[in-house]
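Q: Could you predict the 3D structure of Putative short-chain dehydrogenase?
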Amino acid sequence: MILITGASSGLGAALANIYGTEGQSLLLTGRNEQRLARVVSTISGEVNAIAADLCQPREISALLDSLSQAPDTVIHCAGSGYFGAIEQQQPDSIEKLIHNNLTATILLLRELVKRYRNNKINVVVVMSTAAQVAKAGESTYCAVKWAIRGLVESLRLELKGSPMKLIAVYPGGMATDFWKTSGKELDTSGFMTAQEVAIMLKQALVNADHGYVSDITINRG
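A: Sure. Here are the predicted structure tokens for Putative short-chain dehydrogenase:
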């Protein structure tokens, strides 16, 4: 069973469609119940959806309580963007950026480790190439993504010897609705589609008996 966060749009929705087509059992979550329902309507097979705010510990607990068994894979795609020169950014929007990205990831990983650290489970954390390279005009966005990268790398040390594995994913620019609410206007015609990234990511998520792919960078060509 695969749990996908941020599944109401973008990469999360594209992954849900690909895995759903293959007949995988899915639990999808996102903040927008109506958009989640639209994604579910495009998938045949065993798929459930629960709207949840991952900044709320009780909603994360309720989401995981709904599972009859530990998931095989969790793909955490939820997040948001906010860009612009630092002096022009608004404090409330910065706070929202931190909550939607860093706080949500900390709280989700906390609960996953608490419940499943002794289970063989892949936890895939989708970040951005902004977690690898500094970018002008994206200072606060880079800050939260770098923080999430530090979180993932630190938790790997805490989970050493555990069957739970953390996989970091760093995709480049995608042509999705992400940009409409980010405060950054740009031409995305040359960006990757969410479908393209989903296909590449799925192909890269392969484990062997004595190894796994720990870090995945998906650049646009």
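Q: Anything worth pointing out?
A: Strands lie at 2-5, 26-30, 47-51, 73-76, 122-126, 165-171, 207-208, 211-212, 215-218.
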